[in-house]
Design goal:
Layout: E1 2-6, H1 11-23, E2 28-33, E3 54-58, H2 64-72, E4 77-80, H3 87-92, H4 94-114, E5 119-125, H5 149-168, E6 172-177, E7 179-181, H6 190-199, E8 204-207, E9 213-218, H7 219-232, E10 238-241, E11 246-248, H8 249-260, E12 267-270, H9 285-291, H10 299-312, H11 314-322, H12 324-329, E13 338-340
Parallel strand pairs: 1-2, 1-4, 2-3, 4-5, 5-6, 6-10, 7-9, 8-12
Antiparallel strand pairs: 3-13, 9-11
Helix pairs in contact: 1-7, 2-4, 4-5, 6-8, 6-10
Length: 342
């Protein structure tokens, strides 16, 4: 199988590249990433440069001219991770989110349709459903009710993907996951940010009262779910992916401080984010029942593994903190140049 993975230098995308290479060594993987600030080519440094079954191409999914020859080279399936995903940035710069997440997805759909791609998997988010109260779970039939420019742009992209199935008969699936955590996550997100701050004995900024609730999913469990959807997902179906690990932000931060032996006095409450959704929680019964998915990382194991990874990979953290990884990224052409390995 020839896979195109978009956004494969980002957090979840790079984890998925590593996962699929280990699970399916005979597959060919074309990794396409624009290497924006959240794309880090060093996430893929362990991939053998001479491996003929892996290629990296630096290209922007919005750029049809750059993407066209990649589809012409032959693609069996697209797994679409590439997106702007940080809510705070979407509040400050919503236009970037609209063009990347909506226009970029449309460009991929058009090219996939024109070149007979067999499967298109849209990797989305539970944020498209909006906010829950104190009880209840998001199901696949929950109405879309996004509350930020980020989640609105992802909802729009999801609807485009659905429309290409209904109108053109494309074999598509949409996955909507809860909050991921694990290796290679850019430290603007809660868990790696708090680990980095705590390791340096710096204040840990917590929005508002810290009681916003998220359902946490270890990234490798997310990868295994996407793997099942890629190979066994029924045409046109949406699959929610969640860990049933609801924690308040304060609980997450406290766990990190305790694991690192740091005092709770490092916690600093800051003004709440605009439009901050109070609670997310996923009902993942459909993917469990229909596809047999089972997460392997309970929260306690996953968070400990994540903390240990960031401690063991201090050099990676330093590259991100100083921006040195951007210089490494810039060593790759922006003209759709194909590169073996990384």
């Amino acid at each position: 199988m020839k896979l195109m993975i978009t956004g494969g230098a980002g957090f979840i995308g790079s984890n998925f590249v590593h996962y699929m290479r280990k699970a399916y060594p005979s597959y060919s993987i074309l990794n396409v990433d624009a290497l924006t600030y959240a794309g880090n080519i060093t996430n893929l440094a362990s991939i053998e440069p001479a491996d003929g079954r892996y290629r990296f191409v630096r290209a922007d999914i919005r750029d049809r001219a750059a993407m066209l020859p990649l589809f012409e080279s032959g693609v069996d399936a697209v797994i679409h991770f590439a997106a702007e995903s940080h809510v705070d940035r979407s509040i400050a710069q919503p236009d970037v989110f609209v063009t990347t997440n909506v226009v970029g997805t449309h460009t991929l759909l058009e090219l996939a349709k024109a070149h007979g791609v067999s499967k298109f998997v849209q990797v989305s988010t539970d944020e498209v459903y909006g906010s829950l109260g104190a009880s209840g779970l998001f199901t696949e039939s929950t109405p879309l009710s996004p509350n930020s420019p980020y989640s609105a742009s992802k909802a729009a992209a999801d609807l485009l993907v659905r429309a290409y199935h209904e109108t053109y008969g494309m074999h598509v699936n949409i996955t909507r996951c809860s909050n991921n955590y694990g290796p290679y996550q850019f430290p603007e997100k809660l868990i790696p940010l708090m680990i980095a701050q705590a390791l340096q004995d710096k204040p840990l900024p917590v929005y508002g009262d810290g009681l916003n609730v998220r359902d946490w999913l270890y990234v490798e469990d997310h990868c295994s779910a996407i793997d099942l959807v890629l190979h066994r997902g029924a045409p046109g179906e949406v699959y929610n992916v969640g860990g049933r690990n609801e924690r308040t932000n304060l609980e997450v931060v406290t766990t990190i401080l305790e694991a690192l032996g740091k005092p709770a006095s490092l916690i600093k409450h800051v003004p709440d984010r605009l439009g901050h959704d109070r609670r997310y929680a996923i009902d993942a019964d459909k993917i469990r029942t229909a596809l047999g998915w089972q997460p392997q990382f309970p929260y306690e194991r996953g968070i400990q593994a994540t903390i240990e990874w960031y401690i063991d990979n201090a050099a990676w953290m330093e590259q991100v903190a100083t921006g040195a990884y951007l210089g490494i990224n810039e060593g790759h052409s922006t003209n759709g140049e194909e590169l073996g390995g990384s």
